[in-house]
TrEMBL record:
<dbReference type="InterPro" id="IPR004881">
    <property type="entry name" value="Ribosome_biogen_GTPase_RsgA"/>
</dbReference>
<keyword id="KW-0699">rRNA-binding</keyword>
<feature type="domain" description="EngC GTPase">
    <location>
        <begin position="49"/>
        <end position="197"/>
    </location>
</feature>
<feature type="binding site">
    <location>
        <begin position="88"/>
        <end position="91"/>
    </location>
    <ligand>
        <name>GTP</name>
    </ligand>
</feature>
<keyword id="KW-0378">Hydrolase</keyword>
<dbReference type="InterPro" id="IPR027417">
    <property type="entry name" value="P-loop_NTPase"/>
</dbReference>
<dbReference type="InterPro" id="IPR030378">
    <property type="entry name" value="G_CP_dom"/>
</dbReference>
<keyword id="KW-0862">Zinc</keyword>
<feature type="binding site">
    <location>
        <position position="227"/>
    </location>
    <ligand>
        <name>Zn(2+)</name>
    </ligand>
</feature>
<comment type="subunit">
    <text>Monomer. Associates with 30S ribosomal subunit, binds 16S rRNA.</text>
</comment>
<feature type="domain" description="CP-type G">
    <location>
        <begin position="40"/>
        <end position="199"/>
    </location>
</feature>
<feature type="binding site">
    <location>
        <begin position="142"/>
        <end position="150"/>
    </location>
    <ligand>
        <name>GTP</name>
    </ligand>
</feature>
<keyword id="KW-0342">GTP-binding</keyword>
<keyword id="KW-0690">Ribosome biogenesis</keyword>
<keyword id="KW-0963">Cytoplasm</keyword>
<feature type="binding site">
    <location>
        <position position="222"/>
    </location>
    <ligand>
        <name>Zn(2+)</name>
    </ligand>
</feature>
<dbReference type="Pfam" id="PF03193">
    <property type="entry name" value="RsgA_GTPase"/>
</dbReference>
């Protein structure tokens, strides 16, 4: 039996007058949050389960990164979790700078809901609180120091969770060291978890299709089914880029994540075959250059 993770429902058998219990089985998961296990092995690491909404937290000040945001969106949508983006520390930037960040998110084709947050003024915290419904499970995803723990304290109305010292740059120290499930007063459940340095992709085709639906829509209009979206005639994606309707960086991110997912999804013999084929191309190129210099 696989080990349970935070958010799992399990069937147990109590003993020692209820002081201890043994897990008999894990109930089927309705959703999941997972990533490729750090290291060389192409294996999943289950992070949490049975989550209804994932709050993806990014700081407006030091942490904002659209490409990382896309990775989080792929991860959540692949696990059948609804994403909501929270932009924290809005008090550290001007209203004009905030509008620029919001525009960059929309320009990247990201259509998830975005809520600006300030843990100093309390802006947006009540909006998040109103989204949390009884009987549903939510989680906070984001890098270390973006204000997740402070936000949790604001949502529970207490200072039960310790927060780190905030530097002059606005970057807080990482203080959450384990995933924990917190019961809120209104009956909602909130999972706080440490910041994840690695967000490796593994077999996330469903999440990619959902997060990059704009790219998929343009690709379906290409003249050729096997279009590489580079120089082929009738490429709808290149036409959209030329017209300013599609961000080329958004396309590059999609292609990178697709290659990463497909590579890590290969079996070991498939990877060795691919590496050998690439090695032959490199050797042939070096040899050809050597002949050209000899001439």
């Amino acid at each position: 039996m696989a080990l349970p993770c935070v958010g799992d429902w399990v069937r147990v058998s109590y003993h020692d007058a209820g002081a201890h219990a043994s897990i008999l089985d894990i109930q089927p998961r309705t959703s999941f949050l997972r990533r490729r296990r750090p290291g060389g092995n192409a294996e999943f690491q289950m992070i949490a389960a049975n989550i209804d909404v994932a709050f993806i937290v990014q700081s407006c000040h030091f942490d904002f990164n659209v490409r990382r945001l896309e990775r989080y969106l792929v991860m959540t949508r692949d696990g059948h979790i609804e994403p909501v983006i929270l932009l924290t520390k809005t008090d550290l930037i001007s209203p004009e700078a905030l509008e620029d960040l919001l525009a960059s998110i929309r320009h990247a084709g990201i259509n998830a809901r975005v809520i600006p947050i300030s843990n100093v003024s309390g802006r947006g915290v009540e909006t998040v609180h109103e989204l949390i419904q009884p009987g549903k499970t939510y989680c906070l995803l984001g890098s270390s120091g973006v204000g997740k723990t402070t936000l949790v304290n604001g949502l529970i109305g207490k200072s039960d969770l310790a927060t780190g010292v905030v530097s002059h740059t606005g970057e807080g120290r990482h203080t959450t060291t384990r995933r924990q499930l917190i019961a809120l007063e209104n009956g909602g459940l909130l999972i706080d978890m440490p910041g994840m340095r690695e967000l490796g992709m593994l077999d996330v085709s469903e999440g990619l299709d959902a997060s990059f639906s704009d790219v998929e829509a343009y690709a379906s209009r290409c003249r050729f089914a096997n279009c590489t979206h580079t120089r082929e005639p009738g490429c709808a994606i290149q036409a959209a880029i030329a017209q300013g309707a599609l961000d080329p960086a958004h396309l590059q991110s999609y292609q990178k994540l697709r290659r990463e997912s497909e590579f890590h999804g290969m079996s070991h013999p498939e990877k060795r075959k691919k590496d050998r084929a690439f090695g032959k191309v490199v050797r042939a190129t070096i040899k050809a250059k050597g002949r050209w210099h000899d001439d």
